[in-house]
Amino acid sequence: MKRGIGAAAAAAVSALVAVAVRDLLQRDHALLRNFPVIGHGRYLIEAIGPELRQYVVAGNNEERPFTRDQRRWVYASAKKENNYFGFGTDNDIEYTAGYPIIKHRTFGRAVPRSTPAAGYEASVPCAKVLGSARGRARAFRPESVVNISGMSYGSLSGNAIEALNRGAALTGCLQNTGEGGLSPYHRQGGDLVFQIGTAYFGCRDERGRFDLQRLKDLVAGAPVRALEIKLSQGAKPSLGGLLPGAKVSAEIATTRGIPQGVDCVSPSRHAEFSDTDSLLDWVEMLAAETGLPVGIKSAVGDLDFWDELTSLMATTGRGVDFVTIDGGEGGTGAAPLIFTDTVSLPFQVGFARVYAMFAERGLHEQVVFVGAGKLGLPDNAVVAFALGCDMVNVAREAMLAIGCIQAQKCHTDTCPTGVATQNPWLTRGLDPTLKSVRAANYVKTLRRDLLKVAEACGVEHPGLIDTGSVEILDGRTAATALDQVYGYRPGWGLPSKADRVAIAELMRITEPQGGSATPSRSAMS
Description:
Belongs to the glutamate synthase family. The chain has 18 helices and 13 strands.
């Protein structure tokens, strides 16, 4: 026994000596050369530092991009568990400039019901009919104000895409395909918005050029409800994407229309148009050929493009049916740090500037506005609706709902929960059937909370929340109304009068308002 222990100890000492000798002889790391063996402790702590901060060190509201409180709310909502918080807020409201405050109304048109499950199964459709303003043949009213944002198969695993699509089918929301094409995992019952990126994946010929017939064939054979032309995204505006050849499997190659095993590069610009005028020509061509509503997705930087777009729409009769604004805080795509942190405006600032340009030219009631960029949290979403959003798209929050733990390994192909990886061993851990229910639970809970807040503001639908219902704190002693913060004029941020009347009536039919008891005799007399 003693001999065995002695042999093990001798082997351990020999291993340490070998490591020490290697450290002393190598020249790559000064720390290890100066402090052999023990210097490795520094690299170990660095490697597990994110996990230590996430689970041990950081407070409930310190982490980014999503705090522990925010993640807990998403996880509990997805599992249909208690997502309430007790003992008051732990947010530093008094000293946080920019903090939004939603103003409830004592007496409003809508009377909120107080039961926790109220509104959970409610239908909360878009307040506008997508494509109707421009007479598109296949115009429709989206069934949900909350939809799943563009995340490509290739960036996300097939199991993750399938879970999101099944979840979309369960809850009646739309799933955006992302620019990576329409895969078999997108064909599990959920309706789709097909995103057309700069590489035209899924609708390109053998030379990488856009192929209209392939697009028409794809649309005819799948539940595609709208087309979205991706100009840029919040995570990496003005940059194309790269999928390394090692990740380009046979299935991804077929979905995208590219060679297997070869690096897949997305250009930074479209080849089918070179300016705003030719962009609108292409939009109208796609709408005429497919009958579908056509929109654009973009982060917001230089405003000259938006000035040209709204000017041409106001004077030429051509135009987009919807505009998706992605905030600079968005981020399912991997990007250089400078782009992730500082290129493109954050959502509220960027959206307000773009919306104002449409409103100044009288176009805001003709376009469906979609917001993206951490809008899968109720407080952010309410502000977005007040600013003029008609729908919100959720991406990272939807990933959290199906198992993401914010490991931030999306770009390394080592996502431990199988969401953002193509590693077969890791993806096998994600059960699409189970996770689809959690995705649906999350979307339903977010819609329920938005509906409850709308009713607290005295209106029947989130799209009817106006800028007067939100104030932004300037610090401990002052607050500024949302319309003043962003220079909105009276009536901005709301659908047209006809759309307001229609959606209020629709909500009264599908989700009756009311209290829990009938008035007493004294109240009736």
